[in-house]
Design a protein that fits this description.
The chain is mainly beta. It has no helices and eight strands.
Length: 73
């Protein structure tokens, strides 16, 4: 499982996304979710499965050149 640091929040917490689902600190997550870690505990920061349920599955890839996310099937 690969984790990617998305951002550091202004409160010092880390926002992370993973390439597969799993469990961190008792929090179950899927690959479309974002977890928040405060150095001691994990919590769900964004439940991607609950958002935009009408969209078909896709893989988002960041284009550093264009500084935006593009959607690919």
């Amino acid at each position: 499982m690969l984790g990617e640091l998305i951002d550091g929040d202004s409160n010092g917490h880390l926002l992370l996304s993973f390439d597969t689902g799993g469990t961190a600190g008792g929090v179950d997550f899927d690959k479309e979710d974002v977890l928040e870690f405060d150095g001691a505990t994990w919590e769900m920061a964004y439940d991607g499965g609950a958002e935009h349920t009408e969209w078909p599955p896709a893989c988002a890839v960041r284009s550093d050149y264009e500084k935006r996310y593009v959607r690919r099937e």
